[in-house]
Design goal:
Helix content: 40-55%
Number of strands: 13
Largest sheet: 6 strands, mixed
Distance between the termini: 33 Å
Strand content: 15-25%
CATH topology of the largest domain: Rossmann fold
CATH architecture of the largest domain: 3-Layer(aba) Sandwich
Number of helices: 11
Shape: globular
Radius of gyration: 19 Å
Structural class: alpha/beta
Length: 285
């Protein structure tokens, strides 16, 4: 049986990860000076986390060391089974440089193991969507990881992801935009609608006010959504239940036959997006 890996930056809920038998790499973050590991929502108190951010607590993220990756993957290389890691975008973190150091070492020690890493070129549940579909496909097709990567190649450019942040200062803190742009945008009530393009965050629209930004998201969903292999539509929020409920209602009006999941934005993504963020993720035309 192949070992299928994901990391917690994929934001796939832990209950789904357990159903699919996934091995989970817990990514680190720090809140108010305390080091923690993300856990796909199993023990994450979203309201407490985002309330801390609202009151000024610093939140940050970090990568993992080569030694950590080596120790984590070694038992699975020792088993000799195929290994597939469906990962978040390599363009968003330097952690994959350390991963490659560890994997190259393990490949030398265990040359017969078939190891594949699939770069989803996405983040948050944009990655989680491909983890979900890829793991389902793999389990249903004899744990063939090469066929699974070919399947994911067909889907990787069809993930629709749109989100709106409440305060751009958190994007500035994470280096995603300049502090000056964040300050001006907040003062002018400009709400950028963000997506992922070619593996990196991208502003696809700038709207005057949050209502127009949310409408842009729902319009984009209505235009682009396509039911695909039982994939859900996923609405996420960073302690913004009212906006999440409204967006979920709109999604269900537009796609009444779709399965809709709602869940919290996890702490690693939340460090950069900040409280109040709302987004929708789906398979697109």
């Amino acid at each position: 049986m192949a070992n299928i890996f994901c990391d917690t930056n994929c934001e796939l809920h832990y209950t789904q990860a357990e159903k699919l038998g996934l091995k989970v790499i817990n990514m680190p973050y720090t809140i108010d000076g305390e080091d923690k590991l993300a856990d796909l929502g199993e023990n994450f108190d979203a309201k407490a986390f985002y309330d801390k951010m609202r009151t000024g607590a610093m939140a940050s993220t970090a990568g993992l060391s080569a030694e950590y990756y080596y120790d984590f993957f070694k038992p699975y290389f020792e088993q000799g089974d195929d290994i597939l890691y469906i990962a978040f975008s390599s363009k968003m973190s330097a952690t994959f440089e350390y991963l490659e150091v560890a994997i190259n070492r393990l490949r030398t020690e265990y040359p017969m193991v078939n190891y594949r890493r699939f770069d989803t070129l996405n983040i948050c549940v944009g990655t989680g969507m491909l983890v979900y579909l890829g793991a389902k496909f793999c389990r249903e097709h004899g744990d063939d990881i090469d066929a699974t990567c070919a399947y994911l190649d067909e889907l990787v450019n069809r993930v629709g992801l749109y989100f709106v942040v409440d305060d751009m200062k958190y994007l500035a803190r994470g280096g995603r935009i300049s502090p000056a742009k964040a300050k001006i945008g907040n003062l002018m009530n400009i709400k950028p609608v963000l997506t992922v393009k070619e593996g990196k965050l991208d502003v696809c629209s700038k709207q005057n006010g949050v209502k127009k930004a949310y409408k842009y998201m729902t319009d984009a969903f209505a235009e682009r959504y396509k039911a695909t292999d039982g994939a859900p539509v996923i609405v996420v929020d960073a302690d913004n239940p009212q906006a999440s409920a409204e967006l979920t209602s709109k999604v269900r009006e537009i796609a009444p036959d779709a399965e809709v999941w709602t869940q919290s934005v996890g702490p690693v993504i939340g460090c950069h997006a900040g409280p109040g963020t709302v987004g929708v993720i789906f398979m697109a035309k």
